[in-house]
Write the structure tokens for this entry.
Amino acid sequence: MAPEYEFRPAWRLDDPQLMSDAKEFWRELKMLGPAEIERRASELIMVAYHLGKPVAVSTANLAMVDQLRCRCAMYRCAVALDHRRHHLSYQISGLSRDVLEQWSLEHPEEEICGMAANIEASQYRSGKQREPMWPEYGLHLNFVGYTNKGQQLRVAWFKHAILPEGRK
């Protein structure tokens, strides 16, 4: 039976408790250096908790994606090792997409067309990455191409997005 998770939105809230919990999560995983931890704390979208402890974190930075000729929220998430077999990455990603889409709708001046992700997780290479669409948990993260580093680039387009006109 899958554990129960509590998801707390954090996007643009500057919530000190959520930021502190995310920083502690990253320190425990030993996945980021001190400067990167501070930078990413300001990019928090969502923190997932199990029994009061943070077990997954999602972040995004807003950037132009040259390949797509539009601005996207460049998405990242990390899940604690002992929670990686419970579809938590899909759950937090789908909820994060919803938060980002609503924010984008409320801030049209930012011209954010979707949530994009460079897929780095090696466990998806042989199976899941061969599927062009990932509809799980409302995520709708679809394959659009490869990065210069050979990673898959996937995008969940926002319903209200308007793409710029194509140029030669």
